[in-house]
Amino acid sequence: GDSVVQTEGQVLPSEGDSLIVNCSYETTQYPSLFWYVQYPGEGPQLHLKAMKANDKGRNKGFEAMYRKETTSFHLEKDSVQESDSAVYFCALRFYNQGGKLIFGQGTELSVKP
Amino acid sequence: GAVVSQHPSRVICKSGTSVKIECRSLDFQATTMFWYRQFPKKSLMLMATSNEGSKATYEQGVEKDKFLINHASLTLSTLTVTSAHPEDSSFYICSAIGPGKETQYFGPGTRLLVL
User: Fold this and answer.
1) Which of A43, A99, A105 sits opposite B93 (nearest CB)?
2) Residues A53-92: pLDDT tens digits?
3) Which chain B residues are closer than 8 Å to A95 by Cβ?
4) Where are the beta strands (DSSP E) in chain A?
């Protein structure tokens, strides 16, 4: 079945470190890909998106490239800040399934000052 | 734009009572809304897809008689947890497909505690 896998449950970089949060997906279809960010006690917010292969989503210094050949959508940032600390969810979506999202397990980013 | 609200943000109820949670799209019309449940430190679990003017579509394992969903207008969907029990305590989040149909926008969530 369709699935999204985030291999890290938690990452603990120091401020100024570079960051890669892994996201891989499995599907026989052609999804749109998203990263959502969730702060404590709140609902998820759209962080960035890519609608088709080779698209790159960008937001607040974060980037993610839709790589169809490796079925990946890794989230990257050159220099993280303490304010980036949150839980990040990778998700995919198919238009022909009513638009529902399939989420990964989430990665908690805790940036040390 | 594309703001989704939920009410209440937090509710505490006694076991056996029913609780209604509202989800509203404030500045757009949403023919489709979704209801999720989230446990602490866990991902979002899709419970059902709510379609305006028709019956909701429930995910496997979700009791439709337990979690009643009504989508009576293009800006409002409600989730009623009937005969709530402590195991129903959770963070319930709704979302709506925004203008352009590309993106889902999430509400701020409702924390339910059943005593």
Assistant:
1) A43
2) 999 999 999 999 999 999 999 999 999 999 999 999 999 9
3) 101
4) 3-5, 10-11, 19-21, 24-26, 32-38, 45-50, 56-59, 62-65, 75-77, 86-93, 101-103, 107-109
